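Recap slide: DUF3828 domain-containing protein, sequence and predicted structure.
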Amino acid sequence: MKQSSILVLCTVTLAASLPAFSAQPCTPPDPAMLQATWQGFRTAMLQGQPEQVARYYKFPVTLLPPMDGTAPLKISRAAFLKNYGELFQQNPAGEEVSMLTDMKKSTGKEYIRQMRFDDSKCAYIASTRIEDYNFVYDKKTGWKIDSLFYGSNDLELAKSSGLDR
């Protein structure tokens, strides 16, 4: 027998002797994971820890205006870290940013509505909103914030101050 024939025969014999492996079924993540992510994010934000807060975002993150008609603002990870204080704590005018004010009023047990999970795509149909934050789920990275509704005055000030750079 030729060497290639022996290799094919061995491969076929080995394949026939291995148990059949099936793909893992698609299952939605445990809802407790999103609650834990929300609580961890909330804690980091209230403690003013930019590096820790950044772990909860999917970049570039989109700052959405509260009403239609205004263009959103895309923030890269570098701009997020560089301008974190002005974006999420105290704006360039010296006022507390509404995102922080609202977070201080939260309890950590905010309502999380159930979203429809598409088994065929192994993904949620849309993002899941908690307060002003839109979370998306990825099997590899878990829950991340991909966009958030940002106060109208804060958004205009962030744009005019160049906080997206």
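The CA atoms of residues 62 and 147 lie 4 Å apart.
The domain at 26-160 is CATH 3.10.450 (Nuclear Transport Factor 2; Chain: A,).
(End of recap.)
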